[in-house]
Amino acid sequence: FMASYLHTMIIFAVLITMITIVYIKVYSSDEIYKFLDQTVSYTEDQCNNIYSTDGAGTDSYYQDADGNKLMACGPVAGNSQGSYLTMLSGDGL
After folding, report:
1. Cα–Cα distances in angstroms (integers) from residue 85 to residues 3, 25, 71, 78, 82, in the given order
2. Read out DSSP for 33-65?
3. What's the N-to-C CA distance of the chain in angstroms?
4. What is the maximum alpha-carbon separation in the chain?
């Protein structure tokens, strides 16, 4: 009984520690929301510069040769205010 109780306490302590580190300290929901909100505000030129190897946008991998987006940057077409976090999207319920 004591061994089982002790092992369970250790497992819970490790789980609580990992959850605290990952979800509260490193990537809290506020930080994720801030990053996604910042991503929506980028223009197409800024996205090209971000996803280029030289920073000037000349060799960007943001779009393919046909102009289709390869990376998530800028507003989302069909979503409310172009947001990544919305329930009011064209493909939503």
Report:
1. 45, 22, 17, 12, 9
2. HHHHHHHHT--HHHHHHHTBSSSSSTTB-SB-T
3. 50
4. 66
Per the DSSP assignment, residues forming a β-bridge with 89 are 79
Strand partners, 63: 69
Please give the angle made by the CA atoms of 10, 29 and 92, to the nearest 5 degrees.
120
pLDDT digits (tens, 9 = 90+) for 15-67: 998 888 777 766 777 777 888 788 888 887 777 777 777 766 666 665 676 76
Other C-beta atoms lying within 10 Å of the C-beta of residue 48 = 21
pLDDT computed for residue 13 by the predictor: 95
Residue 92: what pLDDT?
63
